[in-house]
Every structure is written in structure tokens, then in C-alpha cells.
Design goal:
The chain is of the alpha+beta class and about 150 residues long. The chain has one domain (about 5-145): Beta-Lactamase (2-Layer Sandwich). It is built from four helices and six strands. A six-stranded antiparallel β-sheet has the order 3-2-1-6-5-4, sandwiched between helices. Helix 1 (about 5-15) runs parallel beside helix 4 (about 135-145). The longest helix has 16 residues, at about 25-40.
Length: about 150
């Protein structure tokens, strides 16, 4: 399936599934499951929530993960600190990468920002090199706006 068609399908499902009346925890849990079940070639999809100067593990799908990540550490911590998306084609080449699952090879992290305030990140890992690109980033930015 072409990526843009896949993303349209996921967008439609997420639009019907997510509801701000149920809060961030329920919505991020369902979104993590939706992404994990529908995105090809990924091995982890989930959220970390900002708590002071660390990101704390939130809802996710995949193997057990790091419980906390300091701001500025690893891909997630850098994306959060700089409030910008990170696409890492090869996590083993990323200085300071935090390896929660050694089978992960590439990663994309999207900051969650509301009213210019960071509240967390969406993190997705893949066992493939170069799994993520600008189209993935654009779609994931759009889908987290539903939160």
C-alpha cells in the first residue's frame, strides 16, 4: 500500500477514535496501539510525557522501554529539549543514543506541543535502517495535532 493511502486510512481511524473528552492518557494509549498495528516495519510506538526535566514513559506498544529519559539525552530527550522532530536513519550512528531495544535501527520522534508548551513526545522505532522520511514526519505531526 502506498504510504499516502496508508496515512489517509490511519488519519480517518484516528479522527474517529480520539476524543479530547477522554484526556491525554486514554488518547495516547489508543493512538500508540493504532500506529503500532498499522505502520509497517516498526517495532515500538509510544509516548513519553514531560515531568520537570525528564521524559517519563507513557502508553506504548512493543517491548518494555526506558522508564525515564533526561532532556537533552538520546533522540527523545534531544527532540524534546529542542522542540523539533528528529529523524534518525541509523540510531547506532547517533551520539548518545539510548538503546532500550537493541533490534531498533532507525527512529522518529515528534514533540507534542500545545500553545507553545512541550508536554511530551511521540517515539517510533524500526528494526530497519532509513525507515522514516519527511513524509512520515509530516503525517505524524498532523496526527499528533489530534491530541
Amino acid at each position: 500500500m502506498r504510504k499516502n493511502i496508508l496515512y489517509q486510512t490511519i488519519w480517518q481511524q484516528a479522527s474517529g477514535l480520539l476524543d479530547t473528552r477522554f484526556g491525554r492518557l486514554s488518547n495516547t494509549a489508543n493512538l500508540a496501539a493504532l500506529l503500532y498495528q498499522n505502520l509497517p516495519d516498526i517495532n515500538w510506538a509510544g509516548f513519553y510525557f514531560l515531568d520537570g526535566h525528564v521524559l517519563r514513559l507513557g502508553p506504548f506498544q512493543g517491548k518494555p522501554a526506558c522508564m525515564e529519559i533526561p532532556l537533552g539525552k538520546g533522540v527523545c530527550g534531544n527532540a524534546a529539549q529542542q522542540k523539533r522532530a528528529y529523524i534518525v536513519p541509523d540510531v547506532h550512528a547517533f551520539a548518545g543514543h539510548i538503546a532500550c531495544d537493541t533490534s531498533s535501527r532507525s527512529e522518529i520522534v515528534i514533540p507534542l506541543i500545545q500553545h507553545e508548551v512541550l508536554w511530551g513526545v511521540l517515539d517510533i522505532d524500526s528494526p530497519l535502517l532509513n525507515r522514516f522520511d519527511a513524509q512520515d514526519e509530516q503525517f505524524l505531526q498532523k496526527i499528533v495535532s489530534l491530541l
